[in-house]
């Protein structure tokens, strides 16, 4: 008879979303079991760009510096270049700071890029190793790779599930309070719950629309034989083919992707075909070692119609499928975990009612729709661009075609890769656990971010006089900022938080500039570093904390007291 393991949360899937959930829940002493059918973390590079907001979350957990040390060598350029061939004529380039330069560079930035962290170019295979290491360090977390979720049932009072070893047939009964399906694009959990996709798919484009061939390879001579400046990513644009390649280790390992014209024929491609296609994209014959190859479909902008069914939640690729332009899929998955984890912990610890969990789909579903929409825009921008037939000709017509392509692609690369608005501008306006104050945030725009203290978004960032990020002063759980030289008394918040068993820390900053930035002396920051409320005095502390914890929409001048008492 199979033994039974009792946990608080069962996590199906050990990719970035599942691992981030395990870390966040483990930090809060929530008992978790994570299962994944794979033998270990990812072998293939997969996602390759960690956005700045994701890096801020890694910083909050204390390991952003570890992530930044992974992947490319510290002094390797992180530029994105567009060329006729990898070793051909350069058409456009976006120059970006190296990993070594980023921590200092970000301190000199303002406006749209006022942030604690800059993006980092690192393959998912390295990110998962780091996340796995930190998940393993959590005493309340058990991880079983090489185990799959076999069956599950929501009884209403708990989740009853069976997990099974892929290798030996050994099985384990699991009883959990909640379950999260973070089990990828072909999610077993989503399928069994019969949750349909919304959105659109099947987009056909010259690039990023249809079947793609992905090859993980070694090319020791890639840089030595390339006349162009080093980049992290090279994109080929010519009348014959469309492809891109990203450096995995900055030395010889690369992730190569090429658009295939015939979807049906793509599955039959051999290693010889891959070598031929790579040589075409490079512009000359070049020796490569193929580590793995597979096909995948570009052209998705899909979001699950529901992110929650009873005690079961979806996150990551199980909840949304992206075309990878802008690198938004993995980063959205991380934020799913960040959003859901503190809510699960709050309910499990009795600090909040189960109704708090209803805010997860209410907040994350619109963000997924937003982000898949942006990814689709970026894919259209590059994928619908027509390369002139004479683009590679050594002629006046060819020169003119390259000049026109250069103008367009220099605009495109900034549209897709300089995206502080996408990165920082996601908001939860209208969420029942956000206390609105009647103000509105600036319009959502991909390439511009205006720091804004309207509740519902990322708190405005600043560097403190001691060189620290403002975010470094935040509590891991709840933070109440008391700003300015004459900040009001915060005792009401502290007393109510104590009554509710809430870990709330008052953080005081007398600098008038921070008061001006937040436009109020008090600001309540959620555990996921979202601004939940701001105001000028603490008289409604009880109602405010009740609302942000899911006890009801209570703050509208008059209050209905639904706060639990000790």
Written description of the protein model:
Helix 1 runs parallel beside helix 9. The chain folds into three domains: 209 residues, FAD/NAD(P)-binding domain (3-Layer(bba) Sandwich); 161 residues, 2-Layer Sandwich (D-Amino Acid Oxidase, Chain A, domain 2); 124 residues, Glutaredoxin (3-Layer(aba) Sandwich), CATH 3.40.30.120. Strands 1, 2, 7, 8, 9, 10, 18 and 19 form an eight-stranded mixed β-sheet that branches. Strands 5-4-13-14-15-12-16 form a seven-stranded mixed β-sheet. By secondary structure, the chain is an alpha+beta fold. It contains 15 helices and 24 strands.
Into which percent range does the helicity of residues fall? 25-40%
Radius of gyration: 25 Å
- Residue stretches low in confidence (pLDDT < 50, at least 5 long) are 557-566
Average residue-wise pLDDT: 94
Number of helices: 15
Broad shape = globular
* Main pleated-sheet profile: 8 strands, mixed
> In angstroms, what separates the terminal alpha carbons?
43 Å
- Kindly state the number of beta strands: 24
> In the CATH hierarchy, what is the architecture of the largest domain at level 2?
3-Layer(bba) Sandwich
Outline the secondary-structure elements.
Blueprint (H helix, E strand, L loop, with lengths): L3 E9 L3 H12 L4 E5 L12 E2 L1 H9 L3 H5 L11 E4 L6 E5 L7 H4 L14 E2 L2 H13 L4 E5 L1 E8 L4 E7 L5 E11 L6 H6 L3 E4 L9 E9 L14 E5 L4 E6 L5 E7 L3 H4 L4 H12 L6 E10 L2 E4 L3 E2 L2 E3 L5 E3 L5 H21 L10 H25 L12 H22 L2 H5 L53 E6 L7 H10 L3 E6 L2 H7 L3 E4 L5 E5 L5 H8 L18
Parallel strand pairs: 1-2, 1-10, 2-7, 4-13, 10-19, 21-22
Antiparallel strand pairs: 3-6, 4-5, 8-9, 9-10, 11-17, 12-15, 12-16, 13-14, 14-15, 17-20, 18-19, 21-23, 23-24
């Amino acid at each position: 008879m199979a033994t039974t393991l009792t946990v608080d949360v069962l996590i199906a899937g050990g990719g970035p979303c599942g691992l981030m959930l395990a870390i966040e829940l483990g930090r809060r002493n929530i008992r978790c079991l994570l299962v994944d059918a794979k033998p270990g973390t990812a072998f293939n590079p997969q996602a390759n760009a960690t956005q700045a907001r994701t890096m801020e979350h890694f910083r909050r957990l204390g390991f952003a510096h570890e992530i930044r040390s992974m992947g490319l060598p510290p002094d390797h350029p992180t530029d994105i270049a567009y060329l006729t061939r990898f070793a051909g004529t350069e058409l456009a380039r976006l120059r970006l700071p190296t990993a070594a330069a980023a921590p200092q560079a970000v301190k000199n930035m303002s406006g749209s890029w006022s942030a604690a962290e800059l993006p980092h170019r690192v393959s998912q295979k390295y990110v998962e190793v780091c996340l796995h290491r930190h998940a393993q360090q959590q005493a309340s977390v058990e991880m079983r790779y090489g185990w799959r979720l076999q069956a599950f049932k929501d009884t209403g009072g708990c989740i009853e599930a069976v997990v099974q070893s892929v290798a030996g047939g050994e099985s384990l009964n699991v009883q959990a309070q909640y379950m999260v399906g973070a089990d990828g694009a072909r999610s077993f959990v989503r399928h069994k719950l019969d949750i349909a996709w919304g959105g659109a798919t099947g987009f056909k484009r010259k690039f990023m629309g249809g079947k793609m061939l992905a090859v993980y390879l070694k090319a020791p001579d890639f840089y030595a034989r390339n006349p162009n400046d080093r980049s992290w990513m090279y994109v080929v644009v010519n009348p014959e083919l469309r492809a891109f390649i990203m450096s995995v280790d900055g030395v010889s390992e690369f992730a190569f992707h090429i658009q295939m014209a015939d979807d049906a024929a793509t599955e039959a491609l051999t290693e010889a075909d891959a070598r031929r296609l790579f040589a075409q994209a490079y512009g000359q014959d070049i020796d490569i070692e193929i580590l793995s190859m597979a096909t995948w479909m570009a052209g998705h902008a899909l979001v699950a119609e529901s992110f929650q069914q009873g005690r079961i939640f979806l996150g990551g690729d199980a909840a949304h499928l992206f075309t990878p332009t802008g690198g938004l899929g993995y980063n959205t998955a991380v934020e799913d975990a960040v959003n859901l984890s503190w809510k699960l912990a709050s309910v499990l610890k009795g600090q909040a009612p189960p109704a708090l969990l209803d805010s997860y789909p209410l907040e994350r579903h619109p963000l997924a729709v937003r982000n898949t929409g942006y990814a689709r825009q970026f894919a259209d921008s590059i994928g619908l661009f027509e390369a002139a037939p004479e683009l590679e000709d050594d002629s006046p017509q060819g020169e003119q075609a390259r000049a026109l392509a250069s103008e367009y692609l220099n605009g495109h690369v900034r549209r897709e890769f300089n995206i502080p608005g996408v990165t920082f501008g996601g908001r939860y306006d209208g969420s029942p656990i956000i206390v609105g104050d009647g103000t509105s945030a600036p319009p959502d725009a991909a390439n511009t971010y205006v720091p804004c203290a309207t509740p519902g978004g990322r708190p405005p960032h600043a560097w403190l006089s001691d060189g620290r990020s403002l975010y470094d002063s935040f509590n891991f759980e709840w933070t109440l900022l008391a700003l300015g030289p004459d900040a009001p008394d915060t005792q009401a918040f502290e007393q109510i938080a104590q009554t509710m068993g809430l870990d709330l820390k008052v953080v005081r900053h007398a600098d008038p500039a921070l008061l001006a930035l937040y436009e109020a002396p008090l600001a309540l920051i959620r555990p996921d570093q979202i601004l939940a409320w701001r105001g000028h005095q603490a008289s409604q502390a009880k109602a405010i904390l009740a609302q942000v914890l899911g006890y009801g929409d209570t703050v509208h001048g008059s209050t209905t007291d639904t706060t639990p008492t000790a």
